[in-house]
Every structure is written in structure tokens, then in C-alpha cells.
Amino acid sequence: MHSVREGIHLSGYESALGADTGELKRIFPGGVAKLWGSTPTSQTRNAKAVALRDRKVGDEVLFYAEKKFIARARILGLFRNRDLAAAVWGIDAEEQNTWEHIMALGDVVEFDVPAGPLLDALAITPPLRGLTLVSAALRSQHLGLLNRLLNGQSPAGGRLSSGAVPTATGKSLGRGDLLRTLGTLDVGVPDERQRRHEVLALLWAIGRLLSGRDRMASWGAFRSQLVPILHEFGALDDGLSAEYPFRNLCGSGLWEVVGAERGESDLAPTAASAEPEAARAGLRVEAATLLRQPLTRAEAIGLLCNTYLGDVDQYELLERVGLVGYAHAGGVEQEGERRSGRGRSTGRGGRRQATVLRPDRDQRLVERVKLLHLHQCQVCGLRLETRFSHYSEAAHIRGLGRPHDGPDEMANLLCLCPNHHVQFDTLAIFIDQQWNVRRSKDGASISSLRRHPEHAIGQEYVEYHRGLCGGSRFGMVSS
Description:
- The chain has 19 helices and 18 strands.
- With 479 residues, the chain is of the alpha+beta class.
- The strands form seven sheets. The chain has a four-stranded antiparallel sheet with strand order 3-6-5-4.
- A hairpin with a 2-residue loop joins strand 4 and strand 5.
- Helix 8 runs parallel beside helix 14, helix 10 packs across helix 11 and helix 10 packs antiparallel against helix 14.
- About 11% of the residues have low confidence.
């Protein structure tokens, strides 16, 4: 599902796009394509053949896995491209085929509902093992049943038993709710060690989402992967085990545990008392769906790091939890350069070298923004004089590097002096909603951003950078 959840960067598959290059770039002007595919069939009348032949742009797609429906999307384009499919998904070693019937997708919405009631109502025999096309005559019934299931109702319209169907994605938890909860973890957890363990577990869970893994992790995976992180960045000892964040995060409303016995509290499932492989925990569906969105994810990571983890090496920590790149506005490439330049220790007495691959920059845009502002820093107004001219630097607001994937355009650039460029890239300063420059550490105002009438700055890029800096701590979250 990674090619649907996160998408693929078309720039990395140029050689495989072939004749579909223009159409894919038209559908996905931002360069990130959400794709799914199907292998060919030699049959002409089976369900898969009918679906491949009769599906059309505009149709809805419903995704099925492990007896559940897990997402839906809308078809934006249809392609048959074996080279692209092989590059994205590989080739089946036994059958020597690939998912060459490609669907370009939009309006992706994730959820988690049991498939049985819907399949029974539509007289479809589970399990689904390939594409199945629902006729136009059943379309409205099909979607109506799904909506009732998402709202916790039975196919006939009555309520399902408690806990049988999760709440609809986005219905009970909004972006503001999520950030408020993350920013107030210390209210219900006065012990700093316990709170830190919860924060580390949440960051680890967000890292799992970013890598395309399942939102729920087994107790065994939790213990083997998170315990070393808790030892290094938390305070794991005999008095506080890894079981604490595994079960107690349920109290946040963002977390759930399944397959574990209940402890003394309804919110305290006991992992140790369950079969090891039966106990699973992770972010709730609604929280996971929000955190798969780039802006919300950046805001959540910035909020957790700046609120609770100001005394740790965040470059090291975020790499360990699978969130490399989020400690620097430029992303992985600039972060790697920073480490290589200062010879960052691995924590084991050694040194790590990094090979840096910078995204291409349009140098004409760089020179244009500098000349437009006459080399004056937009933060402090300094016009740094050199022997024959003046010096300034162009800073991307939403970085070009992974995982930020910002665009190289004037609206995403600032003209800064070297000092404020470093502070901006290392997330020490941010721009608020009123175009004031503030310190990330305490929200203190530094200056008003100097603006030029011919330089329109993209508010969405400023909002993304503000999220990385933890700006939501100061009530600076756009609706």
C-alpha cells in the first residue's frame, strides 16, 4: 500500500514512464503519483478480465485485505506499463509477471472495517482474490452500505455491537484535536520518565506509518524495536518497563491495544499476561490517517520533539525511529551534509560519513529572489557587504529534500543572511500567521518578516515549516 499511501516520486522513475510521462505528470503536477496495479489475465470472461476491461476513469476503488476493507480512492487515469510496474513493484519470480495494469488514484481515504457484512449484502463470496467490478446498478447500494459501516451501523441501518466497527476516519478526530492531545500528554502523566516513554513510542509509531508498515505492531516487535530506543533516549530500568507505553498510551485516545487481557483499569491492557503474538498495539485508525498527511505529520513531530525532548540529540533520535530528515528544514540531504561536515558521533565512539545528493535547484530563481530583495535579509534587514558587491542566501521554506519534498519555486523561497539561514534551516526560528518571525524555543518575537510586493510567499509552505518547528505549541495551527 506504500505506493497508494505515500505515492512514488515520478522523478525517480523517468526511464520507466515511457509514453505515459506526459499524462502522469499532468495528473500529478506535484510529482508524487499514487498508483496501484493488477497483473494481466489470459482469461476473457472471469471477474478480473471484466474489471480490467470495463473500469473507467472516475470509478471508485475499494481496497480489501485480511477480511477487511482498508481504503477507497478514485481512478484518475488508467495505464498499461510493464516497465513502470516492474520498477515500482518488481516482478513475480514464479509467474514472471508484474502489476502492469496501473491505476492512477486520487481522493484516497483510509479506514478499517470488516468486509463480511458488505460482501454478504452484495452477494459476493469472500475472500476477494483479484479485481471485482460492481455494476452501476449496485453502485449506490455499495457506497451506501460502506458509509453505514463506517458510521458504526449494520447494513440494515441499525447499530452494530459495541466495538465491532471503528468510527469513520476523520469523523471523531480532527487535526486540531490530534495536536491538542499531543501537546498535553504531560497533563495526565506527571512522571517525566513515563511521559518521555510515551512520546518515544508515538514517534516510533509515526515512523512505522511513514515506512508504509501496519499501524498495529505486535508486542514482540514493540519490545525488540522500541526497547533499545527507550534505553538510549528514555530512562528504562527495572522500575519502568516497555509495557508501560504499550498499554498506557490508550489513555490518550490516540492509541489502542488488542489481544491483551485487561488490567485493573479498562485503559490498561496487560501485554505480559497475554500470548506474546496475540497482543498488538498502535495508533487508532483516525490518528493514523491524519498522521499519514505530510502537514499533520510534520506538525506532530515538531510538537512532540520541541515540547518534550528538548534535551536529546533529535537528529539521532529521529533517525532511530524512522523519521530521518525531520530535524532539518532541508530534509535528508541537508541533514546528511550537516552530519558529514561536523563528523557526528554514532554514539559508539565511531564516526559516520555521509554521501550527499542534493536535489536540483534552479539557480535563476536563487538569483532572482536575492536581487528582488537587494540582498537584504528578510528577517533582520542586514545587507552583507563584500569587497565588490553584497552577499545573501536563498532558503527554501519547505525543503526540497526528503521527506519534505517542497517545490523549487519563488513562492517557496526567502532571502536571508547566513546567520538567519542557518537558524531557519535548523528550525530555531519560524514565521507565524501574522508574518512575524519567532524563536522556536519560547515563541518570542524577533522581527516582522520583510516582504516585497513582487514576491508572493506561499502560506502553505510557511505553515509546513512552522509545524516542523513546533509552532502549534503557541496556538499557531491553521484550521
